[in-house]
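Q: What does the assembly look like in three dimensions?
Context provided by user:
Components: four
Sequences:
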Amino acid sequence: MSAPTMEEVARRANVALSTVSYALNGTRPVSEETRMRIWAAMDELGYQPHALARGLASKRSRIIALLFPALSRGFGATELEFVTAAAEAAQSRGYHLVLWPMEIHGVGDLQQLIRQSLVDGVLVMEVRLNDERIELLRRIGVPFSIIGRPAAPSDIGFADIDFEQTTRDAVTYLVGLGHRQIAFLNHAEESFNAGYGPSVRAAAGFEQVTRAAGLTPISRFCGDTALAGREVFEELIRAHPKVTALATMNERATVGVMQAAAERGWRIPDDLSIVSLVSSARVAEMTLPPLTAMTPPSAELGQLGVETLIDQLEEDNHELVQRLLPCRLVVRGSTGPSPDPALRSHPKSVPPQGPTG
Amino acid sequence: MSAPTMEEVARRANVALSTVSYALNGTRPVSEETRMRIWAAMDELGYQPHALARGLASKRSRIIALLFPALSRGFGATELEFVTAAAEAAQSRGYHLVLWPMEIHGVGDLQQLIRQSLVDGVLVMEVRLNDERIELLRRIGVPFSIIGRPAAPSDIGFADIDFEQTTRDAVTYLVGLGHRQIAFLNHAEESFNAGYGPSVRAAAGFEQVTRAAGLTPISRFCGDTALAGREVFEELIRAHPKVTALATMNERATVGVMQAAAERGWRIPDDLSIVSLVSSARVAEMTLPPLTAMTPPSAELGQLGVETLIDQLEEDNHELVQRLLPCRLVVRGSTGPSPDPALRSHPKSVPPQGPTG
DNA sequence: AGCCTTCGTCGAAGCGCTTCGACTATACGC
DNA sequence: GCGTATAGTCGAAGCGCTTCGACGAAGGCT
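A: Here is the predicted structure of the complete assembly.
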C-alpha cells in the first residue's frame, strides 16, 4: 500500500542500499549489469525516491520558490502564462515550484520562510531598478535570480523583457506607416521615479528611436486607469494636435484613450494609430478594434528565469545567465497609415457612440 | 552561518531535544516555565523548524499541490487571482503550495509525482462534470479537493461558482430592465456535451429563470473566438430579431458580438444589452463600453479550496466542506433599459466603424 | 614483480525532526 | 495508606535517503 523505499529496491536487486543510491544519482560508478538489475527492481516496484528524505539527506530540496507581489497592479493573463511556464520548466528539470505571494518590506517574512530550508533558491518577479529586495536576498544569502533587472545587474542572473528594443521596434513600425508625430504614453510618474524598470527603459528607448529618426519625442506619464488615459490623451492632443500615433505602456489607460478618441469622433486606426507596448493576445483582442501590440515572451521568460536559477544551483562555476528578450509585434486592428492630421479634427463620419460607463 | 537546529535550541534552554519538539507542536504538555525558556531560546537563535526534516519524521509535509491544466482555454486574470488566493490561504495555514501544471490523461504522471511523497494533498482546478481525474485521484488514494464539481459530488470536498444562481441573477437583472427577449450565449457545444460544468449549469439556470419569468428561453452554443461570436450573433438576430439582451458565457465571443452589433449599427446598451456571466473586472473594463458582468469570487474560491483540503488533512472526522458561491453583479456600461426592438433595425445614428482586424 | 589508481560495492553514520516508551514527582480516589 | 492517574521530562529509535570511508579486484606503470 505505502510507497516502496530504497531498501526494498536494494533487497529485490540484491545490492546494498547505497548502491541503489549511486545507480539512481550517478554519484559513483555502477556496473552495467547491476544498474540493470536495480532499474528493473525499481520499476517493478514503481519506486519513486522520497522527495523529503532525499532533500534532508542531500541538503538540496529541489524546490524553488517563486516570489511574486500579491495582488499587485497590472497582474493578469501575461503573468499567469509566466507562472505556468516557470512551473513547467521547473518540473522538466526535476524541480518543484512553490508560490510565495508576498510583498517584502523587511527581511522578516522572507527570512523566516528561507530558514525553513524548504527551498534551494528563489525566483523574483517584478523587479524595480533599485529594488530593496535584491539587497535583502543577498544579505539572507539565498541563491536567486530575477525577472526584470536592477539598475546595475552586475553579478546576478536575470531574464527580462528588452523594453528599449521593444519600444524601438514599435516606434519603427509606426514610422514605417508614415507617422511623424508619435507620442509615448508611459506608466504613472511615480512608477518612473520609483525606478520601475519597464517605465524607465521604455522611455529611454522611445527617446532614442525618435531622435534617431529625426522626430521630436513627445511623451506623457499616465496612471493605470481608463480615466487617466482619457484625461492625458485630451491634454496631449491639445498640446500636440498633429500627433497621429501612440505607443502605450499600459492597457487600462489605452482603453481610456480609445474612449476619448471615439468621443472626439476619431476612428482607430484611420485617424489615430495605437500600438500597445506590452500586451498579451488575450487582452489585446478584447478591445474594438483589437490592439496592435508588442506581445511579451512570457513563457520564455518564465522558463528562462527558472533555468537561470537552476543552473546557478547545480553548476559550481555557474556562468551568470543574463538575457533580454524583446516583445514580438503582432499587428491587429489599431494601426494603419498616418492620416493627414489637418483633415482629422472634423472627422468624415459622425459623432460616435458616447461614453456609457 | 547555517540555520540553527532544534538541538541547539534544546541546549540553550537546558532541556531535551524532544521537549523542544513538544513545546513547538503542543504534542505533549510542557510546563509554562519550560516553554518560556524554550521560546526565548528559539527567538534568540532565530530558529525555524526545518521543513523537510519535520516532514520526513512526521510523514506530513505540509505541502499541497495545485493541479491545473497547462495552457488551457480561457486562462486569464481570473485564474491568476485564484492561484494567488490559494497560495495565500495555504501560507496562512502554515502550508506551502506547489504548482503542478499538467493535463492528466492517465494515472502515470500524477502517480509519479504523488509517490514522491512531497505533498499531503492535491487541489484540482477546472473540473468537468464527469471528470476522469476524480476517479484517478481516488484510485491513487491521495487526499484531494476540487474547484468545480462533478455531476455527483457525493463524498468529496469542493468549492465552486454557483453558475445556476449566477445566471439566474443576471437574467433577473435584465428582466428588471424591461428585457423580454433574452438570449443565452453558451460555450461551444463540445464543451457542453463533454459535461463542462459551467456550461451545463449555466444553461440549466437560464432555462429555469426564463421559464419562471414566463419568457421563452433562447440559447446558442458558441466557440470561444470573436469570429464565432459574430457568426452566432448574426444567426441569432436573424432567427430572433426581437432579442434585446444577451447573457454571455465567454469573453472572446462577447467581443465578437459587440463587433457584429456595431457593424449593424446597433449601439450598446441603447439597442442591445449584454451581461457577461463570468468576467473579472480587468477584462470587463477592456471593452467599449465596459461590460456589465457577473464577477467571479476567485479569491474566495481559491481560499475555500485550500481550506477545504487542509481541513480534510488535519481533522480526523473531517466534515465534508462543499460550497457554492455566486458571482457578483457589477453594472458597467453594457446594459440598459430594453429598447423597442422594432425601432432598432435602422439605428438613429450612422454606420459604425467597420471591422479592422 | 611491486605499487598506485580506478572501478564497483558495502556498511555505517548522519540529515533534523517526531514519536514512543519509560521514568519521576505530584495529585487523586476511597 | 496504597494503588492509579496525570503532568512533565528524557533518551532513543526511527523517517528514507546521501555520502564517507573502506575494501577487494582489476588494470596501468615502471
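Follow-up: Confidence is low (pLDDT under 50) at residues 347-357 of chain B.
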